[in-house]
Each structure stands twice: as C-alpha cells, then as structure tokens.
C-alpha cells in the first residue's frame, strides 16, 4: 500500500488498493426468504442454504467466490428440493457455474455469465427427469387463471431440457437475441414437445402436443373435449410482435393440425398462416348438437361436417366485431334429426 511513503510525502492514502482476504460462512433460511416473494406450499421440503464466501482482491476491485448448497433431506411424502452451485463476482462480470437444482431424483443444471458493462448475458440450462410440480403453486400465484388446469396435469415432469440463449438486457432489442429451447414435458394426461430457436430475433418453433384434456382448460365447454394430437410449425420475426401492433404476424408463416375427440367423436382441423392470413378446414361428424345449442326439442347430431374458413389473425386478437367481419367461411353440413 506504500503507507509509509505516502505519509512521508504528505500524500493521501489510497484505500482502494487495500487488499481483501476474508473467508466467511453463512446460513440463510431458504423458505423464509422465498416466502417474501411467494407462498411456499407445506408439501415442499427445502432446507436452509449454506454458503462459503471467499473475498479477495482489493477494496477498489473486490472479487467474491460463493460456494452455496441446499442439502438434500429426503422426507417421504414430500416434494424434496435441493441444490448447489458457484457464483463469482469480480470487476464487471458475474459467472454462475456448476449450478444444480434437484427435485425427487431429477435435476436442472444452469451455467451462465454476464457483463455489467456490455449488458450481455449468456446462459445454458439442461435438465432431465426434473419434477415441475413443486413450482406450480408459485406460478399459480402470478398466473392464477391457468392454475386449475395445471393442477389437473400433475405430476408435471420435465423429461428433457436444453436451453441456450444470449442477448443484451439493457434494451428491448430482439435483434440481440440468439438461442435454442428444446423441451420435453410429460404429465398425468399428456405430453408436450417443443423445439425452437431464435437467431437475431428471427424465431422458429415446432411443437407437438398429445393426450391433453381440453375440457379442464375450458370448463364452460358443454361437452367433453380431448386433444389426441396436435403439431404446430411457426416462424417469424419477434420484433414485429412488439412494434407492429396494428398488424402483428404480418410476416409470420406457419401451419398446424389438430386431432380432437369431441363427445367421443373425432374432429380434425388443419390451418395455415401466411403473412398474417389464416386459412383452414375442420372435418367432423357424429357430434350431438343438443349440449351445444339450447332449446333443441329433438335429438340432433352431425352426420358429416366440413367447414372452411379464412381471415386475418390480427382481427381475432383485436376481438372487435368490425374486424371479425373480414372473415369468410363456408360449410357442407349434414344433420341427423
């Protein structure tokens, strides 16, 4: 520090060069801390967080290395959550390494880094057999409308996950976003597979859904509906969704198909999206119309029905009657009375 030399020359001491060499141990009440942000269900078993902290460098340029751990304490009948990882803070950088979150035999691994000067963040998340059920109540506190549906799907399990992304966090500029997200989710009543990527804001995705109940998602439906299988392909520029509010999806392309069981009768729908214009067909038959149409005095069912439709998807989002008048459709319907 050259303290003696500074005193002899009547120069001020430079405290920023004072070295740091500290070793600390800390315990944090994990449940109590998390409870500040959301209610933690009683069935979730999570231990206190233990941390070993090493402080090095100088007062002007400190460096922190934090090794943390939430020990595994398995209790029968509870959803056990544990974890461990390393955090490095130094200069203008932060690094997360060897971060692992565990739930009942599965795990989620997170590695990432950030630069406070450039505002650039990069992260990689991988997982297998990671139980999502403990986190559903936390999500429900912010998205309560979807909570009853998620509860019907429990247990929710993240079979596989591979997520990588990079981008700047100081601005809403999707042109800086790059990454991939490949997910496989299973539930008591169905599966969801998603493969997606984004490159400089250009998004592509393929999703396959199978076996999911629709009636529990839309409880006001007058008859039972189940999704047998659906495949959706979609691509477009994310920036358009944020900026072009009057004509979103104007450059988007996509196609999809859906196989449903409606009152135990098949319904097949196909659709294609081209620069915001949606076309499609629906084929079905055998569905009873009495639960769907009030005041029918005799049994009525569809013998066969084929319906075609076309219109701008933006008008569906705006939801005004004037916009919906731009839609066109035709149908060939056979009724049994």
Topology:
Elements (H helix, E strand, L loop, with lengths): L2 H6 L13 E7 L1 H5 L9 E3 L2 E9 L4 E9 L8 E12 L2 E11 L2 E10 L4 E12 L4 H5 L6 H7 L3 E12 L9 E10 L2 E10 L2 E12 L11 E13 H6 L9 E10 L2 E10 L2 E8 L16 E12 H6 L2 H4 L3 E9 L1
Parallel strand pairs: 2-5
Antiparallel strand pairs: 1-3, 3-4, 4-5, 5-6, 6-7, 7-8, 8-9, 9-10, 10-11, 11-12, 12-13, 13-14, 14-15, 15-16, 16-17, 17-18
Can I get a quick summary?
The chain is mostly beta strands.
Task: Report the β-strand fraction as a percent range.
Answer: over 45%
Number of helices: 7
Mean pLDDT: 85
Q: Could you tell me the radius of gyration in angstroms? A: 28 Å
Measured between the Cα atoms of the first and last residue, the distance is 97 Å
Fraction of residues in H or I helices: 10-25%
Main sheet record: 18 strands, mixed
SSE order, one letter for each helix or strand: HEHEEEEEEEHHEEEEEHEEEEHHE
Structural class: mainly beta
Low-confidence stretches: none
Shape designation: elongated
Q: What is the number of E strands?
A: 18
Could you describe the 3D structure shown?
By secondary structure, this protein is mainly β. The protein has seven helices and 18 strands. The protein has helices at residues 3-8, 30-34, 136-140, 147-153, 238-243, 313-318, 321-324; strands at residues 22-28, 44-46, 49-57, 62-70, 79-90, 93-103, 106-115, 120-131, 157-168, 178-187, 190-199, 202-213, 225-237, 253-262, 265-274, 277-284, 301-312, 328-336. The chain has an 18-stranded mixed sheet that branches. It is elongated. The termini are far apart. 8% of the residues are buried.
């Amino acid at each position: 520090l050259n303290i003696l030399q500074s005193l002899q020359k009547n120069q001020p001491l430079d405290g920023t060069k004072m070295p740091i060499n500290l070793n600390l141990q800390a315990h944090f009440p994990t449940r109590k801390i998390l409870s500040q942000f959301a209610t933690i269900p009683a069935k979730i078993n999570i231990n206190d967080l233990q941390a070993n902290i090493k402080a090095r460098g100088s007062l002007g340029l400190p460096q922190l290395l934090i090794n943390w751990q939430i020990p595994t304490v398995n209790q029968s009948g509870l959803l056990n959550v544990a974890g461990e990882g390393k955090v490095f803070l130094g200069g203008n950088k932060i690094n997360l390494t060897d971060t692992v979150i565990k739930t009942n035999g599965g795990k989620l691994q997170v590695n990432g880094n950030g630069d406070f000067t450039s505002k650039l963040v990069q992260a990689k998340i991988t997982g297998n057999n990671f139980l999502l059920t403990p986190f559903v109540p936390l999500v429900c506190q912010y998205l309560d409308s979807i909570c009853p549906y998620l509860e019907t799907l429990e247990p929710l399990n993240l079979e596989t996950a591979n997520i990588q992304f990079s981008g700047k966090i100081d601005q809403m500029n999707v042109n800086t976003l790059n990454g991939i997200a490949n997910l496989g989710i299973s539930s008591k009543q169905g599966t969801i597979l998603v493969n997606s990527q984004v490159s400089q804001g250009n998004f592509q995705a393929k999703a396959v859904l199978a076996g999911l109940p629709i009636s529990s998602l839309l409880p006001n439906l007058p008859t039972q509906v189940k999704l047998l299988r659906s495949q959706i392909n979609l691509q477009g520029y994310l920036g358009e969704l944020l900026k072009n509010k009057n004509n979103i999806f104007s450059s988007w392309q996509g196609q999809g198909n859906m196989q449903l069981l409606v009152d135990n009768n098949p319904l097949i729908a196909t659709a294609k999206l081209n620069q915001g214009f949606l076309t499609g067909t629906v084929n079905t038959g055998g569905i009873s119309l009495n639960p769907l149409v009030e005041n029918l005095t005799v049994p009525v069912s569809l013998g066969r029905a084929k319906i075609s439709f076309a219109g701008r998807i933006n008008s569906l989002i705006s939801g005004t009657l004037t916009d919906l008048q731009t839609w066109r459709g035709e149908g060939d319907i056979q009724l049994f009375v």
